[in-house]
Write a structure and sequence with these properties.
single chain; 250 residues; alpha/beta; six-stranded parallel beta sheet; three-stranded parallel beta sheet; 10 helices; 9 strands; 38% helix; globular
């Protein structure tokens, strides 16, 4: 059983499981969408925002995870309905039923929570542009809380806080668990990320409205790889088609 197949650590350890007949990947990240695409095309497993030549381990991981020679691949993920694996691969749905049964229901606040992203930290969006756009969005939506991504720069978060007056929340738990245990805003607005797929399942039955904001696609730097834009658009499209989420523009 393995986690994120794009992780350098996982890719280094995977050869140890070379003799395993069954390989189970457990991953709810949106990169799972990229996993299916890369395996079907036989391309190396590298993160969607990575540039430069792929490492040798990424090519080896594709070979080792592609079903065949008596080996079976199972992917356990909340994105199951959006995946098409090579022959011999199977997908099992993570519906978060255990999470809903074990945690919550949360206290629902009468405000708007905005989920942050690390697009600036990964070099895909200019930090100044990100702050400007997020401040304008937070004001327009009346956001009371900004739920920071674990990789976001503290200086950037401070600028957002000063300009909007929103409370900056840095969850100690994965955001799905943090919001399921509460508190959570009546409306949660997220950019194109894993959250637009996991939160609808985690917060089902709570009355919380999960909304997708698609503006980050337009904030990308001019030199951002075409693959990045296509990936973000795919995340938004699958969220709309699968969860019927409302898409908002500023």
């Amino acid at each position: 059983m393995l986690g994120d197949p794009f992780s350098g650590l996982i890719q280094q350890l995977l050869p140890l499981a070379r003799s395993a007949r069954d390989v189970v990947l457990v991953d709810d990240g949106t990169a799972t969408l990229e996993l299916a695409t890369q395996l079907l095309a036989g391309r190396p497993l590298v993160r969607w925002h990575r540039t430069g030549p792929p490492p040798a381990a990424a090519y080896r991981t594709t070979r080792l995870l592609t079903p065949g020679r008596g080996q079976r691949l199972e992917v356990y993920t909340s994105l199951a309905k959006d995946l098409l694996l090579p022959p011999g691969g199977m997908v099992t749905v993570n519906a978060y039923s255990w999470t809903r049964g074990r945690f919550g229901p949360p206290d629902v606040l009468p405000g708007v929570d905005l989920v942050g992203t690390s697009l600036a930290e990964t070099g895909l969006v200019d930090p100044g542009r990100y702050v400007t756009e997020v401040v304008a969005l937070a004001r327009a939506l009346g956001c009371s809380r900004y739920l920071a991504h674990r990789r976001e720069d503290p200086g950037k978060l401070e600028r957002i806080s000063r300009a909007t007056g929103a409370e900056i929340v840095i969850p100690e738990l994965p955001l799905e668990l943090a919001l399921r245990t509460g508190p959570v805003g009546r409306t949660v607005v997220s950019f194109a990320s894993t959250m637009v797929h996991t939160l609808p399942a985690v917060l089902a039955g709570t009355g919380v409205d999960v909304v997708v904001h698609d503006g980050a696609v337009d904030w990308l730097k001019r030199d951002a790889p075409d693959r990045v834009r296509a990936f973000l658009e795919e995340v938004i499209t699958t969220a709309r088609n699968r969860h019927r989420l409302r898409i908002v523009h500023r």
